[in-house]
Specification:
145 residues; alpha+beta; GMP Synthetase, Chain A, domain 3; 2 domains; three-stranded antiparallel sheet; three-stranded mixed sheet; 3 helices; OsmC/Ohrsf
Length: 145
Amino acid sequence: MASNTVTTVWKENMQFETDNPSGHKIFIDAGKENGGNSDGLRPKALMLSSLAGCSGLDVVSLLKKMRVSVADFKMIVIGELTEEHPKYYHKVLVEYHFYNDTLFSKLEQEKINKAVQLSVDKYCGVMEMFRQFAKITTTNHFHQQ
């Protein structure tokens, strides 16, 4: 059975350094309003980044297999927190934005929509984890540069 291990070390004040199985490290910190220095990523926002990264990796891989190229691609993830403690994301919107130098053909849009749907429904494990506690909505947007 596959597993991942990370080590998180308290550095000072409210700042922590955490690693990743790839060996890369990032800092996690609280905002000034919560006693930190804002010198790192916030834990809950980092969860949204993980969701976008997981799905984005799927989409890029699938588009490559489908031989669909785009000039640019980004995701905007908006998480709505509950009012009561412990505050957690109960609603999440994932916006997929695709950019091209020319107009997207109908076939390209269909393939891109399929790639996103496969990520959302089948491949992205982080998306599945989020579904355990949040209502997730996704939208696709096509832009001409």
